[in-house]
Write a structure and sequence with these properties.
By secondary structure, the protein is of the alpha+beta class. The protein has a single domain, classed as Roll (2,3-Dihydroxybiphenyl 1,2-Dioxygenase, domain 1). Strands 1, 2, 3, 4, 5, 6, 7 and 8 form an eight-stranded mixed sheet that branches.
Length: about 140
């Protein structure tokens, strides 16, 4: 096996809730988490390159969302990776269930897999600089730091 890193950190936490807006307001009021339509972004620094930003997404979702399917669990964890295409090829060789194809957006590449218990996992090769621009360009948006 090639000696490459697989997961480099947590990229996001996604979970179902009965009332997204009420829950977001509770978290803002009591814990100071500012949200937008996607939830909240938490900004930190990359360990290996402290001059670069690193983001973690926190997203409450409607109870009936299909975003977490085919898992029956009310949550999904997103893991950051350095080389998604390489990792997906390795996981296929190892017999891991790949749920979909890699999708590419300006903020990174994504794919979903299932673990042994059917938990849906999102793998993300991020482009953190896009979030730097997103948060820096709009004074109303602020990454929770």
């Amino acid at each position: 096996m090639e000696n490459k890193k697989r997961v480099t950190g947590i990229g996001g936490i996604f979970f179902k809730t009965k009332n997204v807006d009420t829950l977001k307001k509770w978290y803002e009021t009591h814990l100071g988490i500012k949200t937008d339509e996607y939830g909240a972004g938490f900004k930190s620094r990359q360990w290996s390159s402290p001059e670069k930003s690193h983001y973690l997404q926190w997203s409450p979702m409607k109870e009936d969302t299909e975003h977490l399917s085919p898992s029956e669990k009310p949550y999904m964890i997103n893991y950051r990776v350095d080389d998604l295409e390489w990792l997906v090829n390795e996981l296929r060789k190892e017999g891991v269930k790949i749920v979909d194809e890699i999708e590419t957006f300006d903020y990174g590449k994504f794919v979903h897999i299932l673990d042994l218990e059917g938990n849906k996992i999102e793998l993300w090769e991020p482009v953190d600089e896009v979030f730097d621009t997103y948060y820096d360009s709009d004074p109303k948006k602020e990454a929770n730091q």
